[in-house]
Write a structure and sequence with these properties.
By secondary structure, the protein is α+β, with helices and mostly antiparallel strands. The chain folds into 2 domains: 4-76, Roll (Ubiquitin-like (UB roll)); 80-156, Orthogonal Bundle (DNA polymerase, domain 1), CATH 1.10.150. The protein is built from 5 helices and 5 strands; from the N terminus they run E-E-H-E-E-E-H-H-H-H. The protein has helices spanning 25-31, 87-94, 104-117, 123-129, 141-156, and strands at residues 4-10, 13-19, 50-53, 56-59, 72-74. It has a 5-stranded mixed sheet, covered by helices on one side. A hairpin with a 2-residue loop joins strand 1 and strand 2. The chain is globular. The protein starts with a strand and ends with a helix.
Amino acid sequence: MNPKLISLTINGSTHQVALSPNTTLLHALRDLGHTDVKSGCEKGDCGACGVLIDGVVVNSCLLLAWLAENKELVTVAGLGTPDKPHPLHKAFVDLGAAQCGYCIPGMILSAKALLDQHPQPTDEQIRESLSGNLCRCTGYVRIFEAVRVAAQELGSTLPE
Protein backbone atom coordinates (compact mmCIF):
# COMPACT_ATOMS: atom_id res chain seq x y z
CA MET A 1 0.00 0.00 0.00
CA ASN A 2 1.17 3.51 -0.74
CA PRO A 3 2.10 5.54 2.34
CA LYS A 4 0.07 8.64 3.11
CA LEU A 5 1.54 11.74 4.77
CA ILE A 6 -0.38 12.65 7.92
CA SER A 7 0.10 15.04 10.83
CA LEU A 8 -0.02 13.72 14.40
CA THR A 9 0.10 16.03 17.42
CA ILE A 10 1.52 14.05 20.34
CA ASN A 11 2.15 15.58 23.76
CA GLY A 12 2.09 19.04 22.19
CA SER A 13 4.55 18.30 19.35
CA THR A 14 3.43 17.90 15.75
CA HIS A 15 4.93 15.17 13.59
CA GLN A 16 4.57 14.70 9.85
CA VAL A 17 4.70 10.96 9.12
CA ALA A 18 4.24 8.82 6.05
CA LEU A 19 2.20 5.76 7.00
CA SER A 20 0.47 2.93 5.23
CA PRO A 21 -3.31 3.28 5.52
CA ASN A 22 -3.46 0.12 7.65
CA THR A 23 -0.92 1.28 10.28
CA THR A 24 -2.40 1.32 13.77
CA LEU A 25 -1.89 4.29 16.02
CA LEU A 26 -0.04 2.00 18.44
CA HIS A 27 2.62 1.15 15.85
CA ALA A 28 2.86 4.73 14.60
CA LEU A 29 3.42 6.02 18.14
CA ARG A 30 6.02 3.39 18.99
CA ASP A 31 7.82 4.02 15.67
CA LEU A 32 7.98 7.69 16.67
CA GLY A 33 9.68 6.70 19.94
CA HIS A 34 6.68 6.80 22.27
CA THR A 35 7.55 3.57 24.04
CA ASP A 36 5.47 4.64 27.03
CA VAL A 37 2.55 3.38 24.92
CA LYS A 38 2.72 -0.35 25.56
CA SER A 39 1.96 -3.10 23.09
CA GLY A 40 -0.05 -5.69 24.99
CA CYS A 41 -2.72 -7.88 23.44
CA GLU A 42 -3.13 -5.85 20.22
CA LYS A 43 -6.84 -6.69 20.20
CA GLY A 44 -8.28 -4.14 22.65
CA ASP A 45 -8.58 -6.37 25.71
CA CYS A 46 -5.82 -5.17 28.04
CA GLY A 47 -5.68 -1.34 27.86
CA ALA A 48 -1.87 -1.20 27.94
CA CYS A 49 -1.83 0.80 24.70
CA GLY A 50 -4.21 3.47 25.98
CA VAL A 51 -3.74 7.08 24.85
CA LEU A 52 -5.88 10.17 25.26
CA ILE A 53 -7.33 11.54 22.04
CA ASP A 54 -8.99 14.90 22.60
CA GLY A 55 -9.36 13.89 26.26
CA VAL A 56 -10.93 10.47 25.64
CA VAL A 57 -8.97 7.31 26.42
CA VAL A 58 -8.65 5.04 23.38
CA ASN A 59 -6.93 1.70 22.80
CA SER A 60 -4.37 2.70 20.18
CA CYS A 61 -4.08 -0.88 18.92
CA LEU A 62 -7.63 -0.66 17.57
CA LEU A 63 -7.39 2.71 15.83
CA LEU A 64 -5.86 3.35 12.44
CA ALA A 65 -3.31 6.13 12.79
CA TRP A 66 -4.80 8.34 10.10
CA LEU A 67 -8.01 8.59 12.16
CA ALA A 68 -6.03 10.51 14.81
CA GLU A 69 -4.88 13.17 12.37
CA ASN A 70 -5.61 16.74 13.54
CA LYS A 71 -6.45 15.57 17.05
CA GLU A 72 -4.58 16.10 20.33
CA LEU A 73 -2.89 12.90 21.45
CA VAL A 74 -1.48 12.53 24.95
CA THR A 75 0.59 9.62 26.20
CA VAL A 76 1.39 9.06 29.86
CA ALA A 77 4.71 10.87 29.32
CA GLY A 78 2.76 13.96 28.25
CA LEU A 79 1.11 14.38 31.66
CA GLY A 80 4.17 15.51 33.55
CA THR A 81 7.93 15.37 33.93
CA PRO A 82 10.23 13.67 36.43
CA ASP A 83 10.73 17.09 38.07
CA LYS A 84 7.03 17.94 38.04
CA PRO A 85 5.00 14.72 37.93
CA HIS A 86 1.25 14.71 37.49
CA PRO A 87 -0.55 13.89 40.78
CA LEU A 88 -1.53 10.53 39.27
CA HIS A 89 2.14 9.69 38.57
CA LYS A 90 3.04 10.66 42.13
CA ALA A 91 0.17 8.76 43.75
CA PHE A 92 0.92 5.57 41.80
CA VAL A 93 4.56 5.71 42.92
CA ASP A 94 3.91 6.77 46.51
CA LEU A 95 1.28 4.09 47.09
CA GLY A 96 3.13 1.28 45.32
CA ALA A 97 0.37 0.92 42.74
CA ALA A 98 2.84 -0.26 40.10
CA GLN A 99 4.64 -3.56 40.27
CA CYS A 100 5.85 -4.63 36.84
CA GLY A 101 4.54 -1.31 35.49
CA TYR A 102 3.42 -2.59 32.10
CA CYS A 103 -0.25 -1.70 32.55
CA ILE A 104 0.38 1.58 34.37
CA PRO A 105 0.48 4.00 31.40
CA GLY A 106 -2.98 2.86 30.31
CA MET A 107 -4.25 2.85 33.90
CA ILE A 108 -3.03 6.40 34.52
CA LEU A 109 -4.57 7.71 31.29
CA SER A 110 -7.89 6.01 32.05
CA ALA A 111 -7.78 7.58 35.51
CA LYS A 112 -6.92 10.98 34.00
CA ALA A 113 -9.93 10.82 31.69
CA LEU A 114 -12.10 9.88 34.68
CA LEU A 115 -10.81 12.70 36.89
CA ASP A 116 -11.29 15.21 34.09
CA GLN A 117 -14.99 14.24 33.97
CA HIS A 118 -15.52 13.44 37.67
CA PRO A 119 -13.02 15.27 39.91
CA GLN A 120 -14.27 13.41 43.01
CA PRO A 121 -15.24 10.00 41.63
CA THR A 122 -17.05 7.29 43.54
CA ASP A 123 -15.46 3.88 43.96
CA GLU A 124 -17.91 2.56 41.36
CA GLN A 125 -16.83 5.24 38.86
CA ILE A 126 -13.17 4.34 39.45
CA ARG A 127 -13.88 0.63 38.92
CA GLU A 128 -15.87 1.37 35.76
CA SER A 129 -13.23 3.73 34.39
CA LEU A 130 -10.42 1.23 34.89
CA SER A 131 -12.43 -1.81 33.78
CA GLY A 132 -10.74 -1.82 30.37
CA ASN A 133 -7.27 -2.09 31.90
CA LEU A 134 -5.89 -5.45 32.99
CA CYS A 135 -3.24 -5.83 35.67
CA ARG A 136 -1.79 -9.19 36.57
CA CYS A 137 0.39 -8.01 39.44
CA THR A 138 -1.27 -5.68 41.93
CA GLY A 139 -4.80 -6.87 42.58
CA TYR A 140 -6.05 -3.31 41.86
CA VAL A 141 -6.44 -2.22 45.51
CA ARG A 142 -3.45 0.13 45.46
CA ILE A 143 -4.35 1.34 41.98
CA PHE A 144 -7.80 2.39 43.18
CA GLU A 145 -6.22 4.01 46.25
CA ALA A 146 -3.83 5.96 44.01
CA VAL A 147 -6.73 7.30 41.94
CA ARG A 148 -8.53 8.42 45.12
CA VAL A 149 -5.38 10.12 46.47
CA ALA A 150 -4.74 11.87 43.13
CA ALA A 151 -8.37 13.06 43.08
CA GLN A 152 -7.89 14.56 46.54
CA GLU A 153 -4.59 16.17 45.51
CA LEU A 154 -6.09 17.61 42.33
CA GLY A 155 -9.15 18.83 44.26
CA SER A 156 -6.97 20.63 46.76
CA THR A 157 -5.07 22.44 43.99
CA LEU A 158 -8.12 23.70 42.12
CA PRO A 159 -8.65 27.47 42.25
CA GLU A 160 -11.50 28.58 44.49
